[in-house]
Design goal:
There is one protein chain. Helices cover about 40% and strands about 15% of the residues. It is α/β, with parallel strands linked by helices and about 400 residues long. The chain has two domains: about 10-50 and about 290-390, Aspartate Aminotransferase, domain 1 (Alpha-Beta Complex), CATH 3.90.1150.10; about 50-285, Aspartate Aminotransferase, domain 2 (3-Layer(aba) Sandwich), CATH 3.40.640.10. The strands form three sheets. The protein has a seven-stranded mixed β-sheet, with helices on both faces. This is Aminotransferase. InterPro entries: Aminotransferase_I/II_large (IPR004839), AspAT/PAT-like (IPR050596), NHTrfase_class1_PyrdxlP-BS (IPR004838), PyrdxlP-dep_Trfase (IPR015424), PyrdxlP-dep_Trfase_major (IPR015421), PyrdxlP-dep_Trfase_small (IPR015422). Pfam families: Aminotran_1_2.
C-alpha cells in the first residue's frame, strides 16, 4: 500500500483545510453499526421510484441510447423541464440557452458557485442550512456570511436581512433553500416579495435551491424566480419529488448570460449527464406529474404523527410546511450539546437523528428527524423516544 511521498504533503487544495467532512454523513457513519438502529437521519424518500419511470430508464439502455448527450443535456429533456416549470411554477425559460441538465442538484450548485464567485467574495447563507452549501462556497474560494434565522421561527426576516447586508456590503450572492432542509419551513408569496425587495436593493444574485418544491402541504410553492427572474438561478431536480435520489438528475435554470458560464463549469466537471437518468426524468416530468401526490399524503400523515408525539414530550417544534423534516428543539433539562443528545438517543433508544449543529451554529440545541422512512419504522422510533424520555425523567435510586 503506497504512502504519499513526504515531498508532496502540500499537494492538496488549500481550501480543503478549512472544510470539515459533512457532519450528516460522519454522524450517520458513527452510529450506523448500533444494533437495531432505526435510521431517521438521512434525507432519503421512503418510496421506490415509480415503475413507469424505471421502465423508461431501462428502455433507453435496451435501445442503445448509450452515447454522449449534449453537454447541457438532451434538448427533449430541457424542453420538458421548461414546460414543467411553466405549468407548475409559471416560469418561462428557453430550453436552448437557459436550462442545463446536471448530475443532481448538488452538481448544479457546485457548478453555479464555481461559475459565479471569485476568491474573496462573500455569500450570505441563512442558517440552519444544508452543510454542503458552505463547503461548496469555500471550495470556490469565497467565504460564508451566516444569517441566523432561529429568532424568527427559522424564516428570514427582511429587516434583519437588510441589516446584515448593510453590515457586509461586499456580499455578492444569497442562497435561498425552501422548503427548507432542515426545518421544513416554506415561504408565502408575500414573504418572498418582501425579501426580494431587500435583495434587489443590495444587488444580489439569488441561488434558489428549490429541490423540495413539489413537497409542500398547506400552501402552494412560489419560486422567487417569479418575482426577480433576472437575479435568480433556480436549482431543482427529480430526486425528492419522484424518489430518484440515486439517479442523480438535477437542473439549473436562469438568465442565459449566467447559465452559459455555469454550463462551462458543468462540462468540465461531468462532460454530460447520464442517459438513463435523463430518459427517466423525461418520463417523470411528462407523465409522472401526479406521482408525488400519494407520497405527499403519507408524508403529511407521518409529519403529524411525529409532531403530535414529540410535542407532549417537551420538544418544541415549528410545524413544517414542506420537505420531510422536523427540526425539534431539545428541552433545556438535558444539559448537553445536540451531538451528545443525538449520540445518546442512538445508543440508548436506537433512534438515529441528526444533530442540529450539523446545520450551523444556529442549529445547536436542535435535532433533525426525517419522516421519509416507512411508517412502521417511524412508529417504533417514536415509541423508543417515549421510553427514552420517561427513563430520563425517572429519578435514579442510589
Amino acid at each position: 500500500m503506497p504512502n504519499l511521498d513526504p515531498n508532496l504533503t502540500e499537494v492538496f487544495n488549500q481550501h480543503l483545510t478549512q472544510i470539515k467532512p459533512s457532519q450528516i454523513r460522519s454522524f450517520s457513519k458513527e452510529i450506523k453499526d448500533i444494533p437495531g438502529l432505526i435510521s431517521l437521519n438521512v434525507g432519503e424518500p421512503g418510496f421506490n421510484t415509480p415503475e413507469h419511470i424505471k421502465k423508461a430508464a431501462m428502455a433507453s439502455i435496451a435501445e442503445n441510447k448509450s452515447h454522449y448527450s449534449p453537454q447541457n443535456g438532451w434538448l427533449e429533456l430541457r424542453q420538458t423541464i421548461s414546460d414543467f416549470l411553466q405549468q407548475r411554477l409559471h416560469l418561462t425559460y428557453d430550453p436552448e440557452q437557459e436550462v442545463i441538465v446536471t448530475d443532481g442538484a448538488t452538481e448544479a450548485l457546485s457548478s453555479t458557485f464555481l461559475a459565479t464567485v471569485n476568491p474573496g467574495d462573500q455569500v450570505l447563507v441563512p442558517q440552519p442550512a444544508y452543510p454542503a452549501y458552505g463547503a461548496m462556497i469555500e471550495l470556490a474560494g469565497a467565504s460564508v456570511i451566516p444569517l441566523d434565522t432561529s429568532p424568527n421561527q427559522f424564516k428570514i426576516d427582511p429587516q434583519t436581512l437588510d441589516e446584515q447586508l448593510t453590515a457586509y456590503p461586499e456580499v455578492k450572492e444569497i442562497i435561498l433553500n425552501y422548503p427548507n432542509n432542515p426545518t421544513g419551513v416554506e415561504y408565502t408569496a408575500t414573504e418572498l416579495e418582501a425579501l426580494a425587495a431587500v435583495i434587489q436593493r443590495h444587488h444580489l444574485l439569488v441561488i434558489a435551491d428549490e429541490i423540495y418544491s413539489e413537497l409542500t402541504y398547506s400552501l402552494p410553492h412560489t419560486s422567487i424566480a417569479n418575482i426577480i427572474p433576472n437575479s435568480t438561478i433556480l436549482i431543482n431536480g427529480v430526486s425528492k419529488s419522484h424518489a430518484m435520489t440515486g439517479y442523480r438528475l438535477g437542473y439549473v435554470a436562469g438568465p442565459a448570460a449566467v447559465v452559459a458560464n455555469i454550463n462551462k463549469v458543468h462540462g468540465y466537471l461531468v462532460t454530460s449527464p447520464s442517459n438513463p437518468a435523463q430518459y427517466a426524468a423525461i418520463e417523470a416530468l411528462q407523465h409522472g406529474r401526479h406521482d408525488t401526490e400519494p407520497m405527499l399524503v403519507e408524508y403529511q400523515q407521518r409529519r403529524d404523527l411525529v409532531t403530535e408525539t414529540l410535542r407532549p414530550l417537551g420538544f418544541e417544534i415549528i410545524n413544517p410546511d414542506g420537505a420531510f423534516y422536523i427540526f425539534a428543539k431539545i428541552p433545556s433539562c438535558y444539559h448537553e450539546s445536540s451531538r451528545e443528545f443525538c449520540l445518546r438517543l442512538a445508543q440508548e433508544a436506537h433512534v438515529g437523528v441528526t444533530p442540529g449543529s450539523a446545520f450551523g451554529t444556529s442549529g445547536e440545541g436542535y435535532f433533525r428527524i426525517s419522516y421519509a422512512a416507512n411508517l412502521a419504522q417511524i412508529k417504533q422510533a417514536l415509541t423508543n423516544i417515549k421510553h427514552f424520555v420517561a427513563e430520563m425523567a425517572t429519578p435514579k435510586s442510589v
